[in-house]
Design goal:
By secondary structure, the chain is an alpha/beta fold. 24% of the residues lie in helices and 25% in strands.
């Protein structure tokens, strides 16, 4: 594979995968390397992600980096004017306006690094990640380990029967599963059938 690093232009990198696959850890690693290179960073996460810290992006392995919590993608554009590198975690919690924000930042010469779930708990594509994958120059797909069988896992198993698409949580609500071990509950009727003896 030819590894070309753009010079003098901006670009978009997407880190995607299931929960517990190391997405945030990889995002933090790239952002810290940018800081070591004396590049100015602006780091963001959605305000609804309060699992570990309001002022930091925190990985499940407890790595962390200071961040700004925002309510919308448009705030990212406003707060990134002086940054060389823009980091965005939990991108699946933003609306589709994030796509234009990332495009505009990259067009202004910024390196934009986005991390998020590419599938929801039911295994369906989780917007806006699929659209970001289509326009990104660099894509990293991370895999976890299935807690049931030990195979590579690219799905997120919700342990509760909540069928809302967005439910913020960690080990208390989710675990990594492979394609074979992943179970889906789409409707209240399916949940009731599954729970019958």
């Amino acid at each position: 594979m030819l590894n070309i690093v753009p010079k003098g232009i901006g670009w978009i990198e997407v880190i995607c995968g299931s929960m517990f696959s190391g997405k945030t850890e990889e995002l933090i690693r790239r952002l810290k390397r940018a800081e070591y290179a004396r590049l100015t960073t602006a780091i963001f996460k959605p305000i609804i992600d309060t699992r570990y810290s309001q002022e930091h992006i925190v990985s499940h392995s407890e790595l962390k980096i200071a961040s700004i919590s925002v309510t919308s993608a448009s705030e990212i554009a406003d707060l990134s004017t002086d940054a060389d590198v823009v980091g965005i975690d939990e991108a699946q919690f933003f609306d589709e306006n994030l796509i234009d924000v990332c495009q505009n930042l990259a067009n202004k010469g910024k390196r934009v690094i986005v991390a998020g779930l590419d599938q929801d708990y039911s295994g369906k594509p989780f917007e806006p990640i699929p659209q970001l994958l289509a326009i990104a120059e660099y894509i990293t797909k991370t895999l976890a380990i299935c807690v049931k069988c030990g195979n590579p896992a690219n799905r997120t198993q919700r342990l509760s029967r909540n069928i809302n698409r967005v439910v913020v949580g960690a080990e208390d609500i989710y675990e990594a599963r492979c394609r074979f071990c992943h179970e889906v509950y789409h409707t209240p009727e399916q949940i009731k059938r599954k729970e019958r003896p």
